Amino acid sequence: xxxxxxxxxxxxxxxxxxxxxxxxxxxxxxxxxxxxxxxxxxxxxxxxxxxxxxxxxxxxxxxxxxxxxxxxxxxxxxxxxxxxxxxxxxxxxxxxxxxxxxxxxxxxxxxxxxxxxxxxxxxxxxxxxxxxxxxxxxxxxxxxxxxxxxxxxxxxxxxxxxxxxxxxxxxxxxxxxxxxxxxxxxxxxxxxxxxxxxxxxxxxxxxxxxxxxxxxxxxxxxxxxxxxxxxxxxxxxxxxxxxxxxxxxxxxxxxxxxxxxxxxxxxxxxxxxxxxxxxxxxxxxxxxxxxxxxxxxxxxxxxxxxxx
Length: 308
Ligand SMILES: [Zn+2]
Description:
8-stranded parallel beta sheet; two-stranded antiparallel ribbon; binds zinc ion; HDACs; His_deacetylse_dom; Histone deacetylase family protein
């Protein structure tokens, strides 16, 4: 059984401008670090096809997809929100990003790999059913969850989101779907200021004050996520893997270290082994300090390899 690495060169064609932190260089930083460390050579490298339109409709209504298509410019940039630009290649990249998650889901459910990391952009966890926001167009993880739930062996799924920002889009999509546990740790108060106080037994919030360090982060995750996972007993686990809670990140003010991303991935891997037949799919979200992003992705992938 292998760990898959799913990425596509065309994800770099989506470019929101030279000063935008969600840059094509992010994927280069990850692949260069994985290659230099020798980890890439131990992974099963896969190339996705774009998600199909009817598959996108699993999480986003047709009018929303048409709205984004109409927004995509022939040249230059257009804006879905003040932070979220489209260039002529953005929807192609977004379809590949979502397609990567479907491919990973298929491979894991088919048993040809045990777990996988999708190094893709644009990210997805802020994309609500009918709103692009926060650098996100389609909710990649939510699409994978919906795809997994079509599979007869999968009745309950968990999404674990350790990005520094709250996964409002994932909460929006699954807020009335008790078969999907969503646990999100996030700096609070902080962007996106949406859905952070919704009360549902299958939605677990772990708000963290600015300045939170490793030990407090780990305690909060163990306190909130482990009992929720034990109650939910998911058949498959998805990770919204944002690395912007790292102390070096320019957007967030949490103070996590490289090793925290190895730690939390190991903890999630143990939960996947205990409840989910080791079925675990991780998808890149944020992470904007390029050297830290590369190191944290290395720590994350190393723990995925060790979880098998
Ligand atoms: Zn983020």
